[in-house]
Every structure is written in C-alpha cells, then in structure tokens.
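REVIEWER CHECKLIST
Item 1: Sequence provided? yes
Item 2: Single chain? yes
Item 3: Sequence as submitted:
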Amino acid sequence: MTTLGQNLKINGDRLWESLMDMAKIGPGVAGGNNRQTLTDEDAEGRALFQKWCEAAGMSMGCDSMGNMFATRAGEDPEALPVYMGSHLDTQPTGGKYDGVLGVLGGLEVIRTLNDLGIKTKHPIVVTNWTNEEGTRFAPAMLASGVFSGKHTQDWAYEREDAEGKRFGDELKRIGWVGDEEVGARKMHAMFELHIEQGPILEAEKKEIGVVTHGQGLWWLQCTVTGKDAHTGSTPMDMRVNAGLGMARMTEAAHQIAMAHQPHAVGAVGQCDVFPNSRNVIPGKVVFTVDFRSPDLEKLTSMRSQYETRAKEIAEELGLGLEIEPVGHFDPVTFDPACVSAVRNAVERLGYSHMDIVSGAGHDACWINDVAPTAMIMCPCVDGLSHNEAEEISKDWAAAGTDVMLHAVLETAEIIA
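Item 4: Structure as written out by the authors:
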C-alpha cells in the first residue's frame, strides 16, 4: 500500500516541459503569452490539454460554458470527485504560469499517479475554467461564476468584447460549447495551485503559501463629465475639467485605502479620457477604482467613503458623476479541512511555508461557495504577474505541485 511519505513527488522536469510546450501557443511579443479567452489560440491550447489528458487515460467532459473536466476514475463509483484546476487563458501581455501552472500541475499529478500505479477511492478531475482573466469578456472568473450560481449563463453569453463580439458566439465559434449543464457537477473538494502574483513569499524566502483567505473586491466604474474646451484659450477659473476630477478622485482612493490599513488596498488601474487630445481639456473620463480587503467591514467602508468623497469632489469642481459597481465578491475563508490537508502536505514534504491571503481573485473563490476548497501558492520572481516578464523557478513549480499531489491524495483517499 502506498503511503504519503516525503519521497512521494511529481516529475518536475516533465511538468516544466509541459509548461514550456503550452507557452508556445499564443506567444507574446516579449517572451510571455497572449492566449486570451475564446480566441483561436485558446482553442489550440485547449486541444493540446485534451490530447495530454486523454493520453493519461482520462475522459474529457465539457459544460456549456466551455469549462473542461478531465476525469481519472476512482475505485468507488458513488464517491464524489476531488477536483484540481485553474485556467489556461491569459492576459494580452500575460505570463507563462498564471493559471497554467494550476492546470498542468493537476495533469502532472495524474501522470504521477499513473506512473506509480496509485488508485484512489474518489475520482480525481483536472479542470480548465473558461475566462478566468476577464480581460476580453468582463467580469473575471466568469465561467466559474456561472458554475457557482453567481451569474446566469444567459447573462454570461451576452458579455461583449471591445469589438462587440459576444461570449456565447465566440465560444461556439471555437467549438467548445459542451453538452453538460453548468454547475450540475458535484464536488468532494477542490484545490487550486497558483503563483502568488505578489512579492511576499519570495521576500520571506518561503517555498509555499498556504492560502487561508481570499480578499474581497469592489470595482467601481466612475464616469466624470465636464466640458471639452481648448487648453490654451480657456481661462483656468472657467474650466470644467473632468481630468482634474479624475486626478483628485484617484488620490482619494489612495488616501481611503491607506486609512484602512492594514490589509486593505485601493487604486485606479484603468481609465479612458475623452476626447483624449493633447490640446483639449477632457470633457469626460471613465475610470475604475479597485478596492480589496480580506475584511468585509473594511471593504464595505472603503466603498462607502469613496462614493461620498467622489461626490464631494465632483460638486466642488462642477462636474457630473456616475458611479456603477461593475465587479464584486465578498472576502473568502477557505475550507478548514482542505487548508489542513495543504498544511499537512507541506509539513510532510518539509517545504518552508507560511499562511497567506490571496490578493487576487481566483476561480477557487467562487467554487468555495459550492464545495470545500483551498489554494496553494508558490512564489514568483519580484511578485510580477500579468506581465510577459512573469517568472518562476522549476523548483517552485515542482514544490507547489508536490503539495497538491499530497493534499489531493489525502482527500481522495489512497486505495492501493
């Protein structure tokens, strides 16, 4: 009988080779990847993942949001599956590891079980969630959101990209509309391996982050309206400057986040200025404020204070203002038993580790509402992500996948 000993590890070289092979699909212009959701490149990446899964003896299922489920059978046909997964889609200037490590790490776990002839009571499923990034079709974590009941499929299908193309149409175009009902699958548990996308683990010289919580989020889209006017001939005291309003509201977001320390962040990361001409005072600006915290009270307070302060700024400058929430989820507390399985795995393997809060949203945050869930994080160089220079080491990738292997086996129950 196989036991969960320190020597039970995945094949790190094989995992790294798979990561590099997937990175050849949708290459970026600066060494990373541009494999945005529901593009031809996404379809090619999906096909390669399916090929690998079937070669590993798994059967592939797909639901009507395009979520992919590769299943390794368990010994008990009545036992609910243990899931591993993340996403294969990337940012337009994305890295080779964000999301991809969690999917291909799951595949490597299965390959290792096959190599060692390990059987489990529960089936094990590796998942590729559709449109986690949300960069082409907002919001992020769209398909896992439908799976967990946060969004309806009809609403998701109507999401449009910058060219007016609909999610549902593009999913059909690339041939990945599955026949399963979204959310019909039941889970025993789910584990998501992910790069940290922040600098803490590397700075603390830790190989593994045991993720206990996920930050909640508010995205507030602000539309500020003023009056287009010539920058050279309009007196300063006669301007209605939407750009000035945005500048002061951006500073307000920073000040409010700083006032809610510790464990609170806020910034403006996206804006559109109209008419965006160097000699025209902006008559309209649309920008999004991103507030996050693992503390619901702080998250709620930041939104409330910002809306009050932004309205005051608009009134002071004679500007129009509309604020629309365009993204939200409450802070997440991951399942204690799943977190314990991760911690047990790290300690069994002897990797350095620390508890950590996820600063980004992940599919696991939605799935946690419908099944016991936990996350595992590995460091990334300088905390850099959503950037083509995103980098991790082969050893970090292997260590994170080793932990997932052990946590999944503890949860799926080894038979032989």
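Item 5: Key structural point noted by reviewer: The mean pLDDT is 97.
Item 6: Recommendation: ____
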